[in-house]
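Troubleshooting entry. Yesterday's outputs looked truncated, so today I'm pasting the complete records for two proteins to confirm everything comes through intact. If either block looks cut off, that's the bug. Protein one:
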Amino acid sequence: MLLHMNDTVDQPIRYLFLILSAVVLFFPMGCTSIKPTGARILQYHSGQCLRSIEEFTKRLYLKNPKYEMDRARRQEKIEQIFADQQPVGEFSGQSSDELLKAAFAGSTVYPDRVYLLGLGLVKSIREAYGLDQSKAVMIGLQIPIERLERLHYNISQVNWRLKTYKDDNGRLLFLTNAPGENGYINMGYEVIMTEILTRIQDDIYLRGGLPGKYVFNMSTLFMSILL
């Protein structure tokens, strides 16, 4: 005879049945956990942002070879920027805002501004999304919205400074959308920055914020993301 749940069954057996059902439901692949949808979106966006910054850094080196003339050394630096481990030496322990500030400083002891900028942008993403912490990515609701807002602020300011900051001779520190020999303007840099900022805005909205109320002003300071 088939046994139904409304039949007489010892209470401990019923509780055990419910517990096992819950385990099967939430962990169908053994130890594999299911991430909430919000966390998956933030993880996807953070990865896409890092890939966009890598493309952006490569383009900057091509457009500004004076910061690293050796192509092999240039590739090594790009790999260092996106390596999982923290940078060593003079940049060890520096926050993203410190690195970004150094990239646009009037005088810098480190001559490769592209490396400083790329490292600062990558560290900004990792700080904001918690990628440098013990977990691969924080659960969506655990990422403070203030981090994402400050990330949006800093990258917006980077985008502005790329177009306006000049050296003592009146030349832009970074060549990006300058017209080529054929007279056409390469807007690839602008597209990449817009993609990054749009993803961050979406994540701010996902966390309950309103990107429309977030105003970027032309401040002279980068904001620290670490809280």
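Protein two, checking that the full record survives here as well:
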Amino acid sequence: MNNMNYIPFDPNAPARDKCGQEIKAGCFVIYGHALGRCAALKFGKILKITLKGSRYPHRPDIPEHHFSVIGVDEDNWKNPITYSLSKKGTLQFSDRMVVIPKSMLPQEVKVLLDQVNI
């Protein structure tokens, strides 16, 4: 028997990042992604949050948040580094991102993400 304490999922509870901060549409995040054969971090903006059904048949009572996000690609092979918007993607794990204030974004990234409407 599993002795772990079960905490029922509350669909009205907000999604939380790795630090426990609330994730909302329009907020800025840092998240991990694959850069060739390496792991890297990417700046992004949350466009929409949806609640999907569970993908675990043994836990159908725990739905999952899906986050529509647009990120900023960095080409750091060039000097100076160039930035561009990536295509829209979906993140599934809120504990693998961190919400950051707009003031922490590099100026080039801030200009690009400000162009994105939610």
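Both blocks look complete. Sanity check on protein two: Residues 28-114 form one domain.
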